[in-house]
Design a protein that fits this description.
Number of helices: 18
Strand order of the largest sheet: 5-4-6-7-3-12-13-14-15
Strand content: 15-25%
Largest sheet: 9 strands, mixed
């Protein structure tokens, strides 16, 4: 907390003289106080939870007053009315009241909305993962426009696009506005506009942390943002990975950074009632070698005889050889052994190899879809998975067609040629929608000039 007066020179530290020494001894900075969970800070510093939460809320109110988000009188009033609670009124809300506040962003396709349980809801972090070319960015771009629509399709609020890899594709957004009939037929007063999309680029992890911690909260408060899109969440973390980042200390630090990032985004989503949608990259996951069982002998057959390497069977004479050839022509051949039975490997239930079949979107079961040859794993691991409320997997499969004329001309090669890609949307897990089963491919969709739509819905 030595940087508290540097950040807020006029902060009244005399009211917290019983807390600040313990926080400084535990090496807790002002950023830690605002980003970490108050319970974690209280455990590290051995302080009462309510006192730590009151200090964090007072520091947050002072920062908002200094940045011009709220005036000083309002910040003081909020702190005096509820010093130890983030929002006292939210604790009194019943289930029926919360259900009435449900608001979601549509994909402009009824079948896709049905698969997602009504769309992309606010106050949650939703992840869209998939390999390159699966349609992640196309999905996010359509949300940037539909969030500007009036309810129930949208939120009638501006949106923010935070890019970590490439700038905002404005030409594609203009094409969506022209080609999608649900958008092009709207009057000018309610039609989405590119001027209501704020674009921010974060080329490295340092700038990303600064923007999410300081600039983004101000932007949300001043412009009533309804949707935050981060494309992609893993790019800066993967770019800064080095050979030394695989040590235990580096992995622990990375886990702490991901937990802080998840806490920041969830706090913004709840405080401003906005939806946060992030895209995530995937990595190849190799399926383990299947185990094979020894072949079973047919009933009634005798075990094969084993001859010694030093002795050889007696050689029959010419008369016996003729009788054996005659018997071979009359008697049926002995039954052959069946091929070995191949089974998928069985992992203990509590191991990561077994559990990842339920949260990655790519299962390694014998009847799983997609097949085991195309296994993927979302980036940032299990720590980041625990920070999100929903994971949507966009699976891309290559469709093969048999055609002798267009096939390979090499003799002995398979006469199959790829013609197109098939894409499927799978809900891996969500608290408001049913998950897609591991033996189901999901909802097949296609990318067209107007966005995303279920296959067969085009005219």
């Amino acid at each position: 907390m030595t940087d508290l007066l540097h950040t807020l020179p006029n902060f009244p530290t005399k009211h917290y003289t019983h807390l600040i020494p313990s926080l400084e001894k535990s090496l807790i900075t002002t950023t830690d106080l605002l980003t970490l969970d108050p319970l974690e800070v209280a455990k590290r510093a051995h302080l009462p939870l309510l006192d730590v939460r009151g200090l964090a809320n007072h520091v947050l109110a002072s920062l908002q007053s200094q940045l011009g988000v709220i005036d000083g009188a309002e910040a003081l009033r909020k702190h005096e009315e509820s010093p130890n609670l983030e929002d006292a009124s939210s604790l009194k809300a019943s289930g029926r009241t919360i259900s009435k506040r449900w608001s979601a962003i549509s994909t402009l396709d009824p079948l896709l909305d049905a698969a997602l349980g009504g769309g992309i809801p606010t106050t949650y972090i939703t992840e869209v993962t998939g390999e390159s070319g699966a349609g992640k960015t196309q999905f996010l771009l359509s949300l940037l426009l539909t969030a500007q629509l009036p309810p129930p399709q949208g939120l009638a609020r501006p949106t923010v696009y935070i890019s970590t890899e490439h700038p905002l594709p404005t030409s594609r957004l203009a094409q969506l506005l022209r080609s999608n009939p649900d958008l092009s037929s709207l009057p000018t007063s309610t039609k989405p506009s590119l001027t209501r999309i704020f674009s921010i680029q974060t080329p490295d992890l340092e700038s990303q942390d600064h923007i999410l911690a300081y600039q983004l909260p101000v932007l949300l408060a001043r412009h009533n943002i309804g949707l935050i899109v981060i494309d992609s969440i893993a790019a800066n973390y993967r770019a800064e990975r080095s050979s030394s980042s695989t040590s235990g200390a580096a992995l622990g630090l990375r886990s702490t950074q991901l937990i802080q990032l998840g806490h920041q985004l969830r706090s913004l989503a709840r405080q401003h009632d906005c939806a946060i949608v992030v895209s995530n990259q995937v990595a190849d996951r190799f399926a383990p070698l299947p185990s094979s069982s020894p072949p079973q002998r047919p009933p009634g057959s005798s075990p094969p005889s084993v001859h010694s390497q030093t002795s050889s069977p007696p050689r029959p004479d010419s008369s016996q050889q003729g009788m054996q050839s005659l018997d071979a022509a009359v008697m049926p051949p002995p039954p052959s052994l069946p091929p070995p039975q191949v089974s998928s490997p069985q992992y203990p239930l509590l191991t990561l190899d077994h559990q990842q079949n339920f949260f990655t979107g790519w299962s390694a079961g014998p009847h799983s879809q997609p097949p085991n040859q195309n296994l993927k794993t979302p980036s940032l691991g299990l720590v980041w998975t625990n920070q999100i409320a929903c994971r949507i997997a966009l699976v891309k499969e290559q469709q093969m067609y048999g055609n002798r004329e267009e096939g390979y001309s090499v003799e002995g090669a398979a006469e199959w040629t790829p013609r197109q890609w098939k894409r499927y949307l799978k809900v891996v897990f969500a608290s408001w929608a049913a998950a897609t089963g591991s033996e189901e491919r999901g909802t097949e969709f296609e990318i067209w000039s107007g966005g995303l739509r279920v296959v067969g819905q085009g005219v």
